[in-house]
Structure formats: structure tokens, C-alpha cells
Amino acid sequence: MVKKSFISVISHEEKEENRGSVAFQILSLTNRIRKLSSHLELHRKDYLSQRGLRKILGKRQRMLSYLSKNNKIRYKELINQLDIRESKTR
């Protein structure tokens, strides 16, 4: 299994203070998504992990849309730091 580096955008002091913040939750979901993606590269038929990945992706998408509605500047910074695509607007 290939170990990929996971992003630590938030400093250690901020992690302990702001574990409930939307930005921290999006960061932790992104790390989980990257871990599951690397797992699924090796185990293509692990359907339970695929389902879990889809659930985590949906949760992160909902949190990103919430953040984009409430704090556009922080949303843009987080998207750039995590190197993920911007969500499509309907």
C-alpha cells in the first residue's frame, strides 16, 4: 500500500481548540477520503469501503456548501489549501 502524505493545514494548537469548526471537519474528512481512495486502488472490489467513501464525500460536499454560503473567503482559502475542486452551483 502506497503511503501518501496527508495535509495538515491547521496547526497543532488550532487542532485542539477548533475541532468542531467546519474547516477542521472538512480537513479531517479530506484526509479520510484520501486514505480510502488509496485503499480502493489496491482493493477494487471492497464494496463496503466504496459505500463509506461515497457517504464521506456527500458529508464533505454538504459541509463545503454550508461554508460557501456563510464564509466565502474561508471557503476559497480552504479549497486552495486542500487542492480540491470547487463545487458546482445549481
TrEMBL record:
CDD domains found in the cross-reference section: Ribosomal_S15p_S13e
Matches recorded under Gene3D superfamilies: S15/NS1, RNA-binding
Keyword Ribosomal protein: yes
PANTHER family (UniProt xref): RIBOSOMAL PROTEIN S15, BACTERIAL AND ORGANELLAR, SMALL RIBOSOMAL SUBUNIT PROTEIN US15M
Subunit-structure text: Part of the 30S ribosomal subunit.
GO molecular function, one term: structural constituent of ribosome
Pfam families: Ribosomal_S15
GO CC, one annotated term: ribonucleoprotein complex
Keyword Oxidoreductase attached: no
Family annotation (InterPro entries): Ribosomal_uS15, Ribosomal_uS15_bac-type, uS15_NS1_RNA-bd_sf
Originating species: Artocarpus camansi
Chief localization: plastid
SMART domains, sorted: Ribosomal_S15
Cellular location(s): Plastid, Chloroplast
Membership in a protein family: Belongs to the universal ribosomal protein uS15 family.
Name of the protein this chain belongs to: Small ribosomal subunit protein uS15c
One Gene Ontology term from the biological process aspect of the record: translation
Alphabetic keyword roster: Chloroplast, Plastid, Ribonucleoprotein, Ribosomal protein
